[in-house]
Amino acid sequence: MSHFIFVTGGVMSSLGKGIAASCIGALLQLRGYSVKMKKLDPYINVDPGTMSPYKHGEVFVMDDGCEADLDFGHYERFTGITCSGADSLTTGRIYEQVLAKERRGDYLGSDIQVIPHITTEIKAFILRNTDGVDFTICEIGGTVGDIEGLPYIETLRQLSIEMGKQRTMRIHLTFLPYIKVAEELKTKPTQHSVRQLQSMGVQPDILLCRSECSLPEDVKSKLSMFCNVEKSNVIAALDADNIHLIPTQYHAEGLDRQICRHFGINTNASDEKIEFAMNERWGTLRRAILHPHKITKIAVIGKYTKLKDAYISLTQALSHAGFENDAKIEITWINAEDDPDDMERALSQVAGILVPGGFSSRGTEGKIFAIKYARENRVPFLGICLGLQLAVIEGCRNVAGLTDATSREFLEDGETGSCVIDLMKSWTGADKVEHRDEHSDKGGTMRLGSYPCKIALGTLAFDVYKREEIAERHRHRYEVNVEEYADAIERAGIFISGTSLDGKLPEIIERKGHPFFIATQPHPEFKSRPFSPHPLFCRFIRAALVASKQGW
Ligand code: GLN
Questions:
Q1: 3-287 with 294-423+479-549: one CATH topology?
Q2: Which of 548, 526, 533 lies closest to 59, judged by CA?
Q3: pTM above the 0.90 mark?
C-alpha cells in the first residue's frame, strides 16, 4: 500500500508548490522508491483548458489529452514519469461527478453535502490507482485559508485519521519575509497559516520554508515551538537561480531523510550510496547549468511575453537542449505586436527564432514577419503549432503569391480569404473518426493529446528523430489545408516531412536548402525532460550554435 504525502501552501501563492512536490518525488526516486504525482485544484473550472495563460500560465497537455495545470509539467520533468488525466482533479470535476450521481438517483433520500459527499469523492480520487506505488504525492492547489480549499483540507484530515501517521504525511510550504531594515526573517505569517491549518484539524509534519536567506537556528527554534513541528523538520527552501538546483538544496537540508524518518523507512540506507546517486544525477546537471562553455541567443515571438509561465514548458525544453549542448540559452522575448523595425533590430541580434503556439489573430502579423525574416536571412527557425500554421501562411503569401492566404481562425464574420489553415471537419483520431465544426464548444473540442506521426526518410525531421514513427502531444483546432492548397504549399517551397498515419494531416513541415527551418503541428516541448532533452530542441540549439560559429 502506498504512503501519502500531502503538500499544502501557506501565506501566499506562487511559492512553487508544484516544484516542491516534484522535488520531493525526485528525491524519493533517488532512494529507490516509485512515486505517483496527483494534483487537487480547488478552482471551480472543470479543467484549466479554458483558463487564460495570462493569469495561470501555460496549459499543460498530457499524453491522454487531458489539459492540466502547468505543475504537471514540473512533475513529469523532475520525476520522468508520465502523468494522466486521472491524476488531476478540480472542484468543477468533483461537482460534475457528484451531480451526475444525484441525477442518476445514487443518493436517493439524502441531502447532498460537502461532508460526506464531496469529501468522499476527493478521497476516492486520492486513493485511486495507487496500489503498488511506494509514494503518492498529492499537491493541494491554492493557499490554506482559501474558501474553495476547505473540502480538500477536510479530506486530508479525514484520511490522516483513517490511515494513521505511518502512512500519511503533511508538508506545508510557507514563506518567511525578510525585512531589510530590521535584518530579520519574520515567522508570524507562517505561524498564522499553520494555525489556520491546525484550526481545521491538520498538523503539518514538515515546514518547508521559502526565504531569500538561510534560516538561523533561533528562527528554526521559534517556528518549531509556535507551529508544533519538530525542529529538524523545519527545513529551509532558499530561493534558487535555477529550479534544477532545488533537489540538491532540499537534500542538503535533510528533507528526504526526514521524510523517511517520519515513515520509519530506509533509515539504514547508506548515506554514501545516496550521495553518489545524488551527485550522478542532479550534481551532473548542476555542473552543466553552472559552467556552460557556450552561449546562444534565441528569440521567442509571443503574445504573453510578460508572464513567462505562459511558456514554461517551452523555456524548459530550451534549457534542457542547452544542457545537452553545453550552452547557456539566453531568450530574447519579442512581443509579436512590436513595431516591425524594432522587431527586425531585435531579430538581427539572435542566432535562432522560435514561434510558439498561440490562439486568435492577435499578434499573428508580427509572427509572420519574424518567420519571413528567418526564411530570408537563413536564421535557424523552429515553429510550434501556430508557428507551423503561420510558416505555411507566410510561404503561401510571400513565396507562392497567394496574397490572401490565412487561417479560418483569423477571419471575422463575413471576411473571406484563402484558408490554407482550416478546420478539418472529420479526421481519424486515436481509435475513432472525430468530427467538429465552427459551432463546437470551446472547451474540450480540440485535437488533444498524443497522436502518432510518420516521418519521411531523407528529411530533416528524420535526421532529428531518427525514427519513422513518433508520437507528440497536440492542442489545436486547425490543420494545414492540403485538400485544397497542396499546390500553393508546394510552390511556397514547403515540404511536408511528417503526417498523421493516414497521411491526411500534415504534422511536420520543413524547407529544403535552408540551414534549419522546421515546424511541427504538435508541441514537442511537453515531452522534453532535463535527463532526456527533446531531439528537436537539441538540434535547433545546435543549429543556432553553428549559426553563431560556436558549433562543432
Ligand atoms: N490556434 C491554433 C489552432 O487552434 C494553434 C493552436 C496552438 O498553437 N496550440 O489550431
A1: yes
A2: 526
A3: yes
Average pLDDT rounded to a whole number, residues 255-261: 95
Ligand 1 contact via 394 beta carbon (within 6 Å): no
Report d(CA 508, CA 469) in Å as an integer: 12
Answer whether 303 contacts ligand 1 (Cβ < 6 A): no
User: How are beta strands 327-335 and 469-476 bridged, if at all?
Assistant: unpaired
Q: Is the CB of 358 under 6 A from ligand 1?
A: yes
d(CA 75, CA 26): 9
Q: In the chain, what are the domain boundaries?
A: 3-287, 294-423+479-549
pLDDT in tens, 17-66: 999 999 999 999 999 999 999 999 998 888 777 776 667 788 999 999 99
156-176 per-position pLDDT tens digit: 999 999 999 889 999 999 999
Decide: 476 in ligand 1 pocket, CB within 6 A: yes
357 lines ligand 1 (CB under 6 A): yes
Closest residue by Cα to residue 271 from 279, 263, 283: 279
CA dihedral 178, 179, 181, 182 (to 10 degrees): -90
Task: Classify 294-423+479-549 by CATH class.
Answer: alpha beta
Which residue's alpha carbon is nearest to atom 1 within ligand 1? 359
Q: Which atom of ligand 1 is nearest to the CA of 385?
A: 8
> Which grid coordinates belong to 520?
511541427
Return the SS3 of 480: strand
Q: Please, how many CA atoms are within 13 Å of residue 304, restricted to the half-sphere of its CB?
A: 20
478 CA: nearest ligand 1 atom: 10
Would residue 549 be called left, alpha or beta, if left means φ above 0 and alpha means ψ between -120 and 50 degrees?
Answer: left
Q: What distance in Å separates the CA atoms of residue 75 and residue 241, rounded to the nearest whole number?
A: 19
Q: What separation in Å is there between the alpha carbon of 432 and the centre of ligand 1? A: 22
Only one residue has cell 498538523, namely 203
CATH for 3-287 is 3.40.50.300
Rounded-to-integer distance, Cα 9 and Cα 153, Å: 11
The rounded Å distance from CA 26 to ligand 1 centre is 33
Q: Which residues are catalytic?
A: 385, 523, 525
Task: Retrieve residue 423's grid coordinates.
Answer: 478546420
Sign of CA dihedral 33, 36, 41, 42: negative
Instruction: Please report which helix (H) or strand (E) contains residue 160, including its range.
Output: helix 150-163
522 alpha carbon to ligand 1 midpoint, in Å?
9
Query: Which residue, 67, 125, 75, 74, is CA-closest to 95?
Result: 125
For atom 8 of ligand 1, the residue with the nearest CA is: 357
Question: Does residue 409 line the site of ligand 1, with CB under 6 A?
Answer: yes
Residue 194 CA, ligand 1 centroid: distance in Å? 43
Give yes or no for residue 359 CB within 6 A of ligand 1.
Answer: yes
User: What's the 535 CA to ligand 1 centre distance in angstroms?
Assistant: 22
Type of residue numbered 134: D
